[in-house]
Amino acid sequence: RDIHRQLGICAAPDDIYLALRGLRTLPTRLEKHETTALAIAQWLQGLSFVRRVLFPALPDAQGHDLWKRDFEGAAGLFSIELDPCTEAQLAAMLDDMAHFSMGYSWGGYESLIVPCAINRSINPDRFDTGGQYLRLNIGLENKDDLIADLQDGFARAGY
Which one, out of 2, 25, 55, 116, has a CA that is 20 to 30 A from the CA of 134? Predict the structure, then answer.
């Protein structure tokens, strides 16, 4: 304790306040992430050019029973595999998204999307089927706005 006091190694009061305030709304935010992500994942499953949705919270997902056994809820993070597309098609989709930003800050309030190169993973044979993978983090925005944004992006990519 003396070292901490002497060196000033402690959290600032404002940081503690913000953390406590965030914890109070965490269950509500997580529920919103889950319900919106499930709705969008189910919508994606119905699209002909979406080869698969990798989200264990979906009832028909591989490993759903294990997920259900070990978890009480889901986050808003999942992946999808699309039919193959060119780099130009992918760029056309991602460059003009209105609600999805590109980034890796999973679990935040904003929706994010990034392309994934599965062929560079440790065990690519297990997942690489030649399609285009995208990783999505579904934030707290309106579900219909996010679906419309994805629809517009898919249209720009020629799907």
Answer: 25
